[in-house]
Amino acid sequence: MYPAHGPKFPSASPFPVYNYFAYATYYFSHYIVCIDPHPPSVYYSGGLCGTRNIQHINILSYRTMELGSIVDFLENKVILITGATGFLAKIFVEKILRVQPNVKKLYLLIRAPDTESALQRFNTEAVAKDLFKLLKETHGENLQKFLSEKVTPVAGDITYEDMGIQDSTLKEEMWRDIDVVVNVAASTNFDERYDVALPLNTFGARHVMNFAKKCVDIKLFLHVSTAYVSGEKPGLMLETPYHLGESLNGTTGLDIDQERKIIEEKLKELKCDDNANEKSIKISMKDLGMERANHYGWPNTYVFTKAMGEMIIGHLKGDMPVVILRPTIVTSTYKEPFPGWVEGIRTIDSLALGYGKGRLTCFLGDPQAVYDVVPADMVVNAMIVAIAAHANQTFSETIYHVGSSVSNPLKFTRIQKSGYLYFTEHPWIEKDGTPVVVGEVTVLKSMASFHRYVALRYLLPLQVLWFINLLFCQAFASTYKNVKRKINFVLRLVDLYEPYLFTKSFYDDMNTEKLRRAVRDSGDEEKYFYFDPRVIDWEDYFQHTHLPGVVKHEFK
After folding, report:
1. Are 130 and 341 in contact (CB under 8 A)?
2. What is the pLDDT of residues 17-51, one digit of tens each?
3. Beta bridge partner(s), residue 435
4. Domains of the chain in sequence order
5. Backbone φ, ψ for residue 3 (5° rounding)
6. Which burial class, exposed, middle or buried, applies to 261 when counting CB atoms under 10 A from its CB (0-12, 13-18, 19+)?
7. Crossing angle, helix 547-554 and helix 412-425, to 10 degrees?
8. Nearest C-alpha neighbor of 151 from the set 208, 200, 90
9. Taking Cα atoms as reference points, which of 328, 292, 297, 463 lies closest to residue 408?
10. What is the pLDDT of residue 480?
11. Considering all CA atoms of the chain, what is the largest pairwise distance in Å, rounded to the nearest integer?
12. What is the mean pLDDT of the segment spanning 204-233?
């Protein structure tokens, strides 16, 4: 595919066939499909992005999606949400309760030893947050009564069969009543311990799916994954499923049950090692996850285990309607329940915080690289619309990329400009009352330049400190160890995030565009369930919404 505004076609291609479709006029005004004797190639910004067999794209048979009232669909529904105290899940819960107070019940699976503890976590980590302020304004002193009628916190853990729910009566009730299962529970740490990530992100998906299959009136299973399961390949990443045993680099032999045995054997080996301690076991488990991920072509443990989770869901679903939602980098809310709500520090926010506090002296990455980000409320709206659109439709799972790199690309230079403008106008104030003056940072455009920079600025002085420490009989041993630890930590982080700092990936959102059009065509509900990133002015969003939100909610 080529942008329709005039790039050259490759000389090897025959004259292209132009396909424009009524269902996605806007989308295809940007692309032209080139059909030749080989699998059609997908072109973007004048270069080859990726290839896809036309039968998988299924462009010529794309049908208009019909969608009734989303709010009406939610009425009287019973929904199970896992990972219910997480960032996205809380926004999802708040949105459902706000737009459809006549939802019948929300079962919230919360990791806790008992129901009372689960309820306490929900109240402390969700209801007490600013996120729920519109519901507080609406219901006033009756909020707790409303929540007690609509929300049932459930103590459980998806790393166990039946999600760790002990109460057999409660399980029978859930299996009888649940209409929709939404699996959001996950560990999102890139280098999580393998013995933590695999049970949660992979086998957790299996346990939630098996629980859903016991629900007698189940209408849909929605699984929140990540767009980065596609790895670090350049080009256009497609909305296609992964299958059991599949790898990114062609390596055969991926067996999910065998991966669990590898963990068990490694842990047994470590426990027999007299020199092993809690810290060394933790490091070994982190290293094992990265090694297994790299072996099959994934850049880190997180995306590897999430990809395997998708494989399991596809394998087990049977005739159950399944939607897999793959968001990109999720940022603060764009509009609802109010602009700028965020929880937890993401990579992009860590850079902003370091810059605002005057601690970011350099940036590693391509200033012209496109960073695929999407506000959290848009992700949640896409989740809700997908549920309403696919409930009771028995066909192979549908994949949705929810991001912005294709429809509204954001280059790092625009983030950088927004950060400079925001922190110039609203400088961080040090404890002594001095405002931090921000300025230009050194941009390192390759790993080689980064290592040279670190060597000259940090490693060389560290060697001097090591020598001084020897001369003064270990007087500076503690300082030396602390500095060395911090440098090693930074180097590990850089290795971890390198694939995303120089990313040249774009995330195809053809399926998602079809979903957006269905909302536009269904009536006036688009204003409630918006998720079109084309409406976002990125510089305005970062300067006036996201960065103020990060500073307010996360700047400590």
Report:
1. yes
2. 323 233 333 333 334 343 333 333 343 433 334 44
3. 429
4. 70-280+290-342+372-406 (3.40.50.720)
5. -60, 140
6. exposed
7. 60
8. 90
9. 328
10. 66
11. 78
12. 98
More confident residue, 305 or 555: 305
Mean of pLDDT values over 63-68: 66
Q: Which of the following is catalytic: 44, 302, 334, 355?
A: 302
Q: How many CA atoms lie within 13 A of 279 on its CB side?
A: 1
Residues 6+ apart with CB under 8 A from 20: 28, 29
CA separation for the pair 321, 506 (Å, rounded): 27
Question: Percent of the chain scored above 90 by pLDDT?
Answer: 66
Beta-carbon contacts of 279 under 8 Å, excluding residues fewer than 6 positions away, are none
The CA-based angle 84-89-92, given to 5 degrees, is 125
Sign for the CA dihedral angle at 449, 453, 459, 460 comes to positive
Q: What share of the chain is helix, strand, coil (3-state, %, to 5)?
A: 50, 10, 40
CA distances (Å), 136 to each of 180, 203, 463, in order? 26, 37, 57
* Annotated catalytic residue, options 77, 306, 317, 514: 306
Instruction: Name every residue whose Cβ is closer than 8 Å to that of residue 39 and which is 6 or more positions away in sequence.
Output: 51, 52, 53, 54
In the prediction, which pLDDT does 452 show? 85
Q: Both ends of the chain: CA-CA distance in Å?
A: 46
Distance CA 405, CA 412 (A): 12
Q: Cα torsion for 190, 245, 185, 283, to the nearest 10°?
A: -30
Q: DSSP readout, 278-323?
A: HHHHHHHHHHHHHHHHHHTT-SSHHHHHHHHHHHHHHHH-TTS-EE
Q: Which long-range contacts (CB under 8 A, 24 or more apart) does 444-447 make?
A: 444/362, 444/363, 444/364, 444/365, 445/365, 445/366, 445/367, 447/364, 447/494, 447/498
Which residue shows structure tokens 């009564």? Answer: 145
Question: Would you state the pLDDT for residue 65?
Answer: 66
435, 427 contact by CB (below 8 A)? yes
Which of 292, 211, 216, 305 is CA-nearest to residue 253?
Answer: 292
Q: What is the pTM of this model?
A: 0.86
Dist. CA 220–CA 230, nearest whole Å: 24
CA distances from 49 to 15, 41, 241 (A): 19, 8, 19
Residues 304, 236 contacting (CB under 8 angstroms): no
Annotation says 306 is catalytic: yes
pLDDT at 105 over 70: yes
Residue 471, token pair as written in the block:
């001369």
pLDDT value at position 313?
Answer: 98
Is residue 467 over pLDDT 80? Answer: no
Structure tokens at 134: 């519109």
Mean pLDDT in the chain? 86
Based on the residue annotation, tell me whether 233 is a catalytic residue of this protein: no
Q: Hey, what are 55's tokens?
A: 């039968």
3-state secondary structure 55-66: HHHCHHHCCCCC
